[in-house]
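Researcher: Here's my situation. A collaborator sent me these components and asked whether they could plausibly form a single complex. I don't have experimental data yet, so a predicted model of the whole assembly would be a useful starting point for our discussion.
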Amino acid sequence: MCEANAYLVGDQGEELVMEAVDTVTPDDGGILLTSIFGDQKFLKATIHSLSLVDHKVYLKSAE
Amino acid sequence: MCEANAYLVGDQGEELVMEAVDTVTPDDGGILLTSIFGDQKFLKATIHSLSLVDHKVYLKSAE
């Protein structure tokens, strides 16, 4: 499986917001994260950068 | 390995722009894609969405 962990990057560093993320899709001014288990989380954020071999997705707050 | 293929999404559908992408980082008004082989490609685009289990990264032109 090729899921990744999603981190919100801010002034205080990286905060893990969801593990085992499958899809990230734009949704209503933010993004909707869906894990391989079907869990969903909405964040007012954008996709900042990726490091896929490290299984990392970096998000940046849109607020 | 958990690399993905990067597709530029436009009016004409999806165009494969790079295979085996490892990192995607913001760079000078666009994004820099780096493959697991070290190849690099700069695009005036943003990261639109992800489907990691399908090994797909969708980009959207910023122009």
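Model: Some features of this prediction you could bring to your collaborator: The interface with chain A takes residues 1-4, 21-26, 36, 46-53, 55, 57 of chain B (CB under 8 Å). The radius of gyration of chain B is 11 Å.
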